[in-house]
Amino acid sequence: MKNKAIQTEIDAWFLYQKLAEHEDDETLKSVFSQMSDIERSHAEAFAKKENLNLAALMLPSWRAKTLNAIGKLFGYDYVLGALMDTEKSISNAVISAKKKNEKEITGSDTSHVKILQSILEKQTKTAGKHLSKFESRHRSVGGNAIRAAVLGGNDGLVSNFSLVMGIAGATAGGTGILLAGLAGLLAGALSMALGEWISVKSSQELYENQMQIEMEELEANPEGEAREVALIYMAKGIPEEQARTMATEIMKHKDQAYELLVKEELGINAEELKGSAVEAAVYSFILFSVGALIPVFPFMFLEGTKAIVLSVAASAIGLFLIGGAITLFTGKNVWYSGFRQVLFGLSAAAITFGIGKLIGVSVSG
């Protein structure tokens, strides 16, 4: 049986290789190619330790193949985000285990994102520009987008499945279930969309207000802002005199000084403000609706026990697929994650079905 650690390294080697193949920017292509070589060397070290023939093991898992397929369909930025999120979670798990066992934490335990950043910083041409580009792409797409899609569908499925089963318990699968299910779908999807719109919009307005205040401070008190810029450089390890000289130089260019203060002092990434609140709301509505439709669909054609059984079966399949999809960015076992999701979802539905049954008996009595 293939060692899990070896498989993780092989998957990373495969995905970084694909990122390199589909990257137009020569600097980033070099970064991904070097990361692929690093991951292969890790796999070789693990295989040598286990006395295994690496050549016979160099096959990507279904998870890696699925991420590659997503990259082909939607763009490889999604693969980069998911891969980075996976490496970060693995790194955190290693560090947590070492803390628990009171073992020394070393630099090798940190996320491979730092390795990528280090490689980028060593490039001779426009390193800062490429590093910013990488960080922007990693934050704006990838794992977050995949996670949002999966969790949006999960919210819709679990909440409406529980609602439908509650009504089914009270009415024995009567015609009122379809109306209740569609109402639950619409109400939940609208609520999710509005919540997403408010979340994105309020964050944008907060950041824009902070940025406006920073610009006003820059114009009203340039000397004070110059001292802040110097302190930012000093915090990065630059000697005081050199930091002051650099601050004086950058203050000659207000736009550059403003960009630095926004990023370093406020911790705001201007790229994140470009997201559309309406677009986020629409995606949230659609994703929730897709999940919420699964348990309702059988009641569009059937009634009674047959409809209930088919709804449970369809929802169980949906829950398993969602659990399996979650492993795209957690790296956990697909069967474990899938069946765990089914267990939780069916348990929630069983509770609401039982409550509905009790209410139904009480009302009819």
Describe the protein:
The mean pLDDT is 77. The chain is 80% helix and 0% strand. It contains 14 helices and no strands. It folds into three domains: 4-140, no CATH class; 147-199 and 276-364, no CATH class; 206-274, no CATH class. The protein starts with a helix and ends with a helix. It is mainly alpha-helical and 365 residues long. Helix 8 packs across helix 9, helix 8 packs across helix 11 (254-264) and helix 12 (277-296) packs across helix 13 (304-330). 34% of the residues are buried.
Q: Mean pLDDT, nearest integer?
A: 77
Extract low-pLDDT stretches.
none
The Rg value, from CA coordinates, equals 26 Å
Number of helices: 14
Structural class: mainly alpha
Helix percentage range: over 70%
> How many structural domains does the protein architecture include?
3
Shape assignment: globular
* Straight-line distance between termini: 59 Å
Helix-strand sequence: HHHHHHHHHHHHHH
- % residues in beta strands: under 5%
Brief write-up:
This protein has 365 residues and is an all-alpha fold. The protein has 14 helices and no strands.
Supply database-style keywords.
365 residues; mainly alpha; 0% strand
Please write out the topology.
Elements: H1 4-21, H2 26-49, H3 62-74, H4 77-100, H5 112-122, H6 127-140, H7 143-171, H8 176-220, H9 222-235, H10 240-250, H11 254-264, H12 277-296, H13 304-330, H14 334-364
